[in-house]
Amino acid sequence: MKPFAFFPGCLIPVRYPAMEFAIRQTLPKLGIEIVDLEGASCCPDPIYFKSKDKLSWLSVAARNLTLAEDLGLDVFTNCSGCTATLSEAYHLLKDDELRDKINKRLKRIGRKYKGTSRVRHVATLVRDEAGYDAVRESVVRPLDGMKMAIHYGCHLLKPSKIMNVDDPNNPEVLEKMVEALGATPVRHRNWYLCCGKACQHEAIPLNMMHALLSTVKDVEAEILCLICPTCFSQFDHGQMKVTKHFNEDYHIPPVYYFQLLAFAQGIPYEKLGFERQRYKPESLQRFATSSVHVEG
Amino acid sequence: MAKARKPNSDDVVRVDFDFRRQLAKKVEGNLASFCYQCGACVGDCPAATYSDEFNPREIMLKVLYGLGEELLVEDSVLWQCTNCYNCAERCPQDVKPVEVIISLKNMLADLNIYPPTVEKIIGTFEKTGRTTPLSPAVDRQRERFGLPPMKPVPMDEISKLLEPAPDEEDDSE
To answer: Cβ atoms within 10 A of the Cβ of A173, count?
Structure first.
């Protein structure tokens, strides 16, 4: 298998290095080789900078993709926002007129976008290149019986014509990934809801999170498993706000999937940075004694 | 931009085509032209569900009428969009209301109007090439996980990319 160029983005390496650590620990155990992308910038983000100027946003995204093209490799990201930007750029730049326009800008820095590097989120990279069975076989302490709610977020799946990942109305990729850990995925009624982070309004995201968390609580999930650092920050910060605002008790730790995989592959709980979360997945500790195989 | 006109009292709707031409210059800004106001975008819209003010069908209608003056304002309702793309999934006309809304935000940026949080994050990106600011504490945290320090982004390259070419916008006309 060819290696894959790793596009880590901003939020994970800067604010949540534990997530990056988890990716770097878990992928080699699935037979996926990682090559770092030198000179990468922000993807740029699909919410803020894209809102200023789509052409500049596309130009910077195209530059990031040329870094992978130089290596002759496909790209993977660990963040749904980066996946959205880079996949959308890859899709939009199939248009000759737009690509010419962007290449005029790239010419200023001696680069040319060719459209030869495909983009994937790490979750779908693992599904497509390693497979669910490889994930299951890499697990040394299965999270048997642990009920996990899944938050897909928006940009892994949608727009579905660009992402081509799974059925946005009834996806299964993350359920299968959770099952491969030995855990039990539980679908809550508001599973499709957005985290609300991009919405520049006080009450709307708060009400959305409340609706989502209350249905996660209804199905008695121990953890809210997710694959996007923006969704993570929203639920880790936001849960406290929701608790206060609605005067209801929530304690549903959001956890990035690859930290769960790292734990299931034997990396000690204490090495995974969970102490920096507001809501800590302490219930994982009950598996800590089973078949510990320390690495990393 | 010419001032948009609201419908007159004689019920004649005067469409501000100048506003629509400006919007069409933005990437995918012209998609609203295909909207036939079916409202499929509304039912699955989280912002519409949790806000009385936000309605993607209504925003597309204002675009069709050219009512820029109602959309391109401080504290615009456009910023209530959660960017979830449900509207783009549901639209039978492939309008992608969310992309039209982002194009409208590009027009707001041309007027130098941003919510403070948004302006701050854009500023961080334009200065450092990243949307999340670095600090010595970041590298200390990374070291704990055996990760190398963050490398600076080659800003000379990024800055050069951000300047618009003089002929860019005219191309699409």
So the answer is: 22
| Residue A227 contacts residue A256 (beta carbons within 8 Å) | yes
Does the pLDDT at position A116 exceed 50?
A: yes
pLDDT at position B5: 60
Q: Nearest CB to A194: which of B46, B108, B150?
A: B46
Q: What does the domain layout of chain B look like in residue ranges?
A: 17-110, 114-145
Find out if CATH 1.10.1060.10 is the number for domain B17-110. yes
Q: Which of A38, A60, A97 minimises the CB distance to B158?
A: A60
- Which of A103, A93, A110 lies closest to B165, judged by CA? A103
Q: Do B122 and A58 touch (CB under 8 A)?
A: no
Domains and CATH numbers, chain A: 4-122 (1.20.1050.140), 141-287 (3.40.50.11810)
The answer to whether the CB atoms of A159 and B85 lie below 8 A apart is yes
Q: How far is B160 from chain A (nearest CA, A)?
A: 7
Digit-coded pLDDT (tens) for A155-188: 999 999 999 999 999 999 999 999 999 999 999 9
- pLDDT-derived band at B9 (thresholds 50, 70, 90) equals low
**DSSP annotation string for chain A:** ---EEEE--SHHHHH-HHHHHHHHHHHHHTT--EEE-TT------TTTHHHH-HHHHHHHHHHHHHHHHHHT--EEESSHHHHHHHHHHHHHTTSHHHHHHHHHHHHTTT--------EEEHHHHIIIII-HHHHHHH-SS--TT-EEEEE--STTT-SHHHH-SS-TTS--HHHHHHHHTT-EEE--TTTT----TT---SHHHHHHHHHHHHHHHHTT-SEEEES-HHHHHHHHHHHHHHHHHHT------EEEHHHHHHHHTT--GGGGTGGGSSS--GGGGGGTTTT-----
ipTM of the complex: 0.95
